[in-house]
Structure formats: structure tokens, C-alpha cells
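Worked example

This section walks through a single chain of length 504. The input is the sequence exactly as stored; nothing has been trimmed or padded.
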Amino acid sequence: MFKYYKEVKLSLQSIAAKIMFKLPDPILGRIMKYISPKKEAPTKLDPKKYWHLQGNWAPVQKEKSIDELEVIGELPKELDGQYIRNGMNPRSGYSDHWFFGNGMVHGINIKNGQASYKNRYVKTPYYEDDMDMMSSSFDLKASPANTHVVRHAGKILALEEAHFPWVIDNDLETIGHHDFDGKLDGPMTAHPRVCPETNELLFFGYRMMGKPYLMYHRVSSEGKLVQSEAIDIPRPVMMHDWNITRNFVIFMDLPLVFDMDKAVEGEDPFGFRPECGARLGVMPRNGNNKDIKWIDVNPCFVFHPMNAYEEGNKIIIHVCRQDKAMVGGMDQIYGGDETTGKLWKWTIDLGTQTCKEEQIDDKPCDFARVDDRKIGLKANIGYAMELNNKAETLTFGNHLFKYNLNNGTREDHFLGSNTVGGEPLFAPNPNSKDEKDGYVMSIVHDNEKNKSKLILEKVLNGENFEDIIENDNESYSAFIYDLSLIHISEPTRPERIVEAGVWL
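Given that input, the structure is written out below as C-alpha cells.
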């Protein structure tokens, strides 16, 4: 009898919630501010649940500017630009979850062999009104803007995947939200792609409450939103990232599913449900829902792919694939071997509409990148950061990986026994089109000294990591050479700045 009553109660709550969620978003936003009171920070933090607030994950709350950073080594004269990172730094020093802290952008300017540093909060309503994710859920302007940065059509966009993007300037000051002249009426993914050939900005947005659960958008090189398409998927899923090629976009409909009933009950709404299946949706870049070919893959989850490209009638995709994700809910993002990514290769045959799945490497890794000039095109080199699959929570390792994508081999760069890495970013030599001619950049953290540093490592043309090339009486490894370290006076917490950087 009790079980029956509970099921009826849940059903009624779910129906009521679904009816309420049909209200206009501005009204819903105001309602949620009243029915979801802000949680107080616990007096004692459980290290397993609140790992994102402790140690190297601890928030950095101060905004500061440093005109001249200490440089160890010599900065290359050809590098003239700005390195920008985004990450989560809760204004109050507390957040319920790693995803929910306020966005803070970190910028390092490099010019004439010198470097300067600045960090600033992205001052959205989420920051100004000290909101949380529940109270901000139905206000598309109220983004934490805490995940990614991308530059397009003269604008630098700070991104998060449930709201509008926000524009910041070269000094990292907040300008305002961006809805493409009122044409965007839903969220924008944290991981858009800029096509290196057309300079179009391609992105999607997913919703948890109500259809369409997925939207596709295409923005011209001038920054005009020229296409929006509703994509039919059967259920709301977390779709953190995706892929593009020269002619196609590829959606990843994977079984990390949102459950309304659990949300109504106050339980964790996300769960990994392999029985729902997993598939890849291939669509022409100017196509629509009718043009999509859905291709089944084995149930898994991918937070971050490396790249995709076309090869005849096939599409090749390299991804950091996890067997499972969030098995215990949102508190268990990573942790253990099954929920830590490894590099895989998916080969889609458009003729047979099948996908061949191959594991490339057994080393745990994520936050993969290629030279941005190769996005959607064939890249010979890819980079990823090692993860610690023995840890219970997201923990970076101390190796930076370079992959030869033609033969699947890996070269390792050791950062130091007390140093943990961050997402790599390739900055090309502006005078060269060669993806081997440039520098790998990453903010890493020295745990012993409790300091962060930006490392610049020159990519050379050697084939094997063991090869040593003599050049001007200096020893270079065939992969990367620790050319210079830019020390930042206070920790920037690279593990809080894990996603996405841009070199401007």
C-alpha cells in the first residue's frame, strides 16, 4: 500500500512538474527563485563529495593583474598573442557541484618575449545575483559562463552549455550576453566548432525540459545566425560535445539520461542507462532532421572527442571514450577505470551505415585537442592529458600525450613527479602552416610549491620520443622541449581550468 501511494504521489508530482515547465521561461525563472532556496555551505566538507573545493581544486576568488610574469627560459619571438582559459571559481568559495561555480577567465599576454597575467570573473546575472543552477535554469541570460572560450567574428565568447554565451573583451571584462540579434532562443553548447575553411561557427544546444531536446545552429563567418534546426531524439540526454567534418556534423546520442521523476523527488536526475542504446547522428552541415543517418555504437559516454574528418565514404572520429559515466549520479563524473576515458577510433561507413570501433590506447586520458586549423580535417597529430584512473574523483596525471593519428602510437612528455597537467592547446608558428611547427601550451600545477605555471613546449619533427636532436648546443626531445615556464604568483588551479583555451 505504501509503495502504491508513493508511486501515485510521484506520478502526480511528475505531472505537476511537467505542466509547470510548460510555462514561459521568464515566469519559471521567477518561480524557481522562490521554491528552490539557496543551500547553505556545510560546516564540514565530505572530501569525496566536495573534492572540487579542496586541494588544488580549491577556488581562486581574487581578481588581479600582473604586468610582468617571471619567465624561465626564453619566450619565442614569433609568439605574439593572448592565451585564455576558463574555469569554475565559486564567488562565495562554495558550490554544490564542480559544474556550478562562477566562471573565471585567465589570460596570459605574450609579446616581445615578455608575459603579463590577468584574471576576471565573467559577470553575468549568475555572478551579480549570486545564483545557483536551479534558480538560473530558466533564465537563458543567467549563465555561469564557466566552461569554455571561443573567438568568432570579432567576439570572444565565454560559454556553458545550458544558457546563452557571454561576450568578453581582450581585457577579459564582461560586455554582455549574446543571442545573435535575438535569433537564438535556447542554450548554446560549451563546445562549438569554428570551421577552418569557411570560418562558420557550428554549434548545438540541448534541453532537459521539453522538446525539442536538441537544436542545431549554423553561424556565418560574419557572425549571423543563418540556420537553426530541431533534431529529433527520443529522450533528454547530456550531450557535452560533438564533431564536425568538412561536409557533416555528428551528434552523439549517448545514454547519459535525464530523469524528470528523479528530479521531482529531489534525487540526482542523471544516470547512465545503457539499455537506451547509443548512436551517432550524421547530418550534412546545411541539412535538417530528415537528412540525419543514425548509426548505432556500443553504449558508452564521451565527454570530449579529439577530432573528426572524412576519408572517401567514411568518417573517422577519435574520441576519449568511457565505458560508463555518472553511474552513481553527478557526484561521480570520473573515478575508476570504467569512467575514465581512453583514446578510441570510430570509423563510420556512410554506405552501410555502420561503425567500426577500435581502442587505440589503454592509457587513461581526456581533454583532447588537435591544431585548431585541422578541426574537421585530417590531422596527423593529436594531444591529450593523462588522467589518474586509480583516483575516486577527477585527477590529472603528470604526463602530456602526443598521438600519431596515422599509426596510433603515443609519445609521453613527463611534467614532473609533483606536477599535474591541464588541457593542452596548440599555438602554431604564425609563419608556418605545418601542424608540427608550433608550441603546445598548458597550465600545470606544482603540488609541492602550490604554484601554477604556463608551459610552452616546442613541437619538433622527430618521429620517436627517444630521438635527440642537437640544435644550437641545446638538447631537444623529438616530441616537445620545455622551452619556457611562465610562473604565476598565485595558483590558478589548472584542474579548475580544465576545459578549453584559445590562442588569439
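What to look for: The helical segments are 2-20, 25-35, 125-128, 133-136, 260-264.
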